[in-house]
Amino acid sequence: MRYWVGIVFFAAGAALFVAAVLHKRRVLAARAAAAARGIVPGEPGLRSVAAFGEIMRPIILAFLVYAAIKTVVLFVMLDGEEVLSYFDVAGVLFMLAGYGAWMSLRTTYRTSDLVAAEAAAAEAAASAGSAAAAPAGASEMPAYMGLPANDRGPPQPATDGPVPGPVPTNRAG
User: Where is the region Disordered (predicted)?
Assistant: First the structure.
C-alpha cells in the first residue's frame, strides 16, 4: 500500500490545481468579452451571498493549514512510517494545497457577478425600447452599472412611522 496513496493524492491535487487555473482563465476571458460589450460587473455588497465566500476563504485556508500540521505531527508521533511513506504524506499535503488553491481561485474569480451583470444588461437592453417612449429624464442609470442584481444596498429607514426607542425602566427603586 506504500506509495499508492501518495500517487492518488498527488493526482487529485494536480487535478485541483489544473481545474483552478482553467476556471481562472475562463472567467478572465468572460470578463474581457463582457468588457468589450461595455458590461462591467459591480463589486458584491455586504449583504450579497458572494461576500460570504470572501469572508470564509481565510477561515477555510487556516483550517487547511491546521489539518496539514496535524497530519504531519500525528504521522511522526504515531510512527506512521510503518504503514505509509513520506511520499504518501507529501501527497496528502499536496492535495490539501491543491484544494486550497482551487477554493481560493473559485472564490476570487466567480462567475455569479458576470451572470448578474449579463442579465442586468439584457434587461436594460430590453427596456431600452420602452425607455425611448418615456419622457426625457425618466430613465435611470442602467442596472449593470450599479450594485449586483442580488444586492439591494444598505437598509433604508422605515417610512411607516417613527422607530421606537428603548423602553424606559425605573432602576432607582
Answer: 143-173
Give dist(CA 10, CA 103) in Å, integer: 17
How far is Cα 39 from Cα 124, in angstroms, rounded to an integer?
A: 11
Average pLDDT score over residue span 47-71? 86
pTM over 0.70: no
Q: How far is CA 117 from CA 45, 55, 121, 142, 151, in A?
A: 14, 22, 6, 10, 12
Contacts of 19 (CB under 8 A, 6+ apart): 102
Cα–Cα distance for residue pair 139/76, rounded to 1 Å: 68
The residue ranking higher by pLDDT, 26 or 173, is: 26
What does the pLDDT look like over 17-27, one tens digit per residue? 999 999 999 88
User: What DSSP character marks residue 144?
Assistant: G
Interval 102-114: pLDDT, tens: 999 988 887 767 7
What is the Cα–Cα distance from 79 to 81, expressed in whole angstroms? 5
Burial 56-73 (b: 16+ CB within 10 A, else e): ebeeeeeebeeebeeebe
